[in-house]
Write a structure and sequence with these properties.
The protein is mainly α. The protein has 18 helices and 6 strands. 49% of the residues lie in helices and 7% in strands. It binds s-citryldethia Coenzyme A.
Length: 431
């Protein structure tokens, strides 16, 4: 960050304090309150962190007003169109686009780590068959701490690198196993002859009884979905990973914590919740009823896949996802998919409604992704696991960045306490 001679003045009663201000490469200045409590004896208060920068980062930048998303400076639209997921992984991890040799080496390193310890197959078989795939993913990734002891020491740069590659390489294998287990089909081993997205589709949809050929257009659409979900600055799950890592927890435990946080319907679980909502709406003539519910303060219902903490005009990922939905569904001959028709009409009616305009609510990345994934053959229960698979590189890149920060200390927020003041114990006979 650029230290400036700018300062902010905090005045409480007849006392004032000058606080340092740091300037970013892009985005708003930040007021450094790190020494505020020590100097002024007060905390700041910001539940939900709506105005709080929790860290310094050089990985991803979002301009919510302009609908801009940059990964190491490169716009998401260009990356989605011209790059591919493993190249974006390299960019996020190492800071710049790779040379041809660097990319080949990175892809080979990932490919050589796609299998998981055979004993983990037995671990997976301990779950009920109807376990949600996210429950299996949280369990299996956390359990990697028990299988890959040679890459859990975060003080060793080599082990940090191996853990990073293992996580990126094995997440598709784990997600596919969670899916196969839930439908009672045998696990499919990864194939090193296939690219990352094709490998995932084969592990999900092939069966031993017949040959499986990956449709290259579906593989491209899958890869694009991975890219669009790769990283998103300090969202809830990434912040969870950073907080877990600040205690020195091993990488697999930290990423398992991120998966657990992503599962929530307000975050990565929104893609599953959105498709279930579109199915519940069922037809375009019921859209006004659901829009009215979303606007009703007494109704907890929200339009899933709508709104965002940061984007206040449009989510650039949703723009690309919508184009991809049209392409994939046309390819699959389901362009008249009733769910897609409801989604497009819902978007049109919501964006024309003053409520959504004034609250700056519009489709986010989760609104169209579920439609594509369903058309590709995935059940809704696999939507968030695919988001988790995609976001693993973002979590890992942010985890590595935090560990390399010499100023790293354990994250330990304070609170506004409104409980009882000190009081003496009362024996039960006197209560
Ligand atoms: C992701 O952070 C990230 O970057 C996340 C993510 C990533 O890549 O990591 O982008 C991925 O999580 C996308 C968001 C997916 N979630 C959903 O689609 C669930 C539905 N959306 C919301 O629950 C909500 O919009 C959030 C959680 C996304 C954002 O919530 P905020 O920023 O805390 O906003 P808020 O809840 O304070 O809402 C502001 C107002 C409220 O009304 P008032 O109290 O001011 O009268 O807008 C209303 C809300 O009631 N509102 C909605 C709404 N979202 C917000 N009303 C109807 N439908 C909605 N979807």
């Amino acid at each position: 960050m650029a230290d400036t001679d700018k300062t902010a003045t905090l005045t409480l009663g007849n006392e004032s304090w000058e606080l340092p201000v740091h300037s970013p490469t892009e985005g708003p200045d930040v007021v450094d309150i790190g020494k505020l409590y020590a100097r002024a004896g007060v905390f700041t208060y910001d539940p939900g962190f709506t105005s709080t920068a929790a860290c310094e980062s050089a990985i991803t930048y979002i301009d919510g007003d302009e609908g801009i998303l940059l990964h190491r400076g490169y716009p998401i639209g260009q990356l989605a169109e011209k790059s591919h997921y493993l190249e974006v992984c390299y960019l996020l991890l190492y800071g710049d686009l790779p040379s041809a040799e660097q990319l080949e080496d990175f892809e080979n390193r990932v490919t050589m780590h796609t299998m998981i310890h055979e004993q983990m197959h037995n671990f997976t078989r301990g779950f009920r068959r109807d376990a949600h795939p996210m429950a299996i993913m949280v369990g299996m990734v956390g359990a990697m701490s028990a299988f890959y002891h040679d890459s859990t020491d975060i003080s060793d740069p080599w082990q940090r690198e191996v853990a990073s590659i293992r996580l990126i390489a094995k997440m598709p294998t784990i997600a596919a196993m969670a899916y196969k287990y839930s439908i009672g089909q045998p696990f499919v081993y990864p194939s090193n002859a296939l690219d990352y997205a094709s490998n995932f589709l084969k592990m999900c949809f092939s069966v031993p009884a017949e040959e499986y050929h990956v449709d290259p257009i579906l593989a491209r659409a899958m890869d694009r979905i991975f890219t669009l979900h790769a990283d998103h600055e300090q969202n809830a799950s990434t912040s969870t990973v950073r907080l877990a890592s600040s205690s020195g927890a091993n990488p697999f435990a930290c990423i398992a914590a991120g998966i657990a946080c992503l599962w929530g319907p307000a975050h990565g679980g929104a893609n599953q919740a959105c498709l279930e909502m579109l199915r519940e709406i069922g037809s375009v003539d019921r859209i006004p009823e659901f829009i009215a519910r979303a606007k009703d303060k007494n109704d907890p219902f929200r339009l899933m896949g709508f709104g965002h903490r940061v984007y206040k005009n449009f989510d650039p990922r949703a723009t690309v996802m919508k184009q991809s939905a049209d392409e994939v569904l046309e390819l699959l001959g389901v362009e008249n998919n009733p769910t897609l028709q409801v989604a497009k009409e819902l978007e049109k009616q919501a964006l024309a409604d003053p409520y959504f305009a004034e609250k700056k609510l519009f489709p986010n990345v989760d609104f169209y992704s579920g439609i594509i994934l369903e058309a590709m053959g995935f059940p809704t229960s696999m939507f968030t696991p695919i988001f988790a698979l995609s976001r693993t590189v973002g979590w890992v890149a942010q985890w590595k960045e935090q560990l390399s920060d010499p100023a790293l200390k354990i994250g330990r927020p304070r609170q506004l306490y409104t409980g009882p003041s000190m009081r003496d114990y009362v024996e039960v006979e006197n209560r």
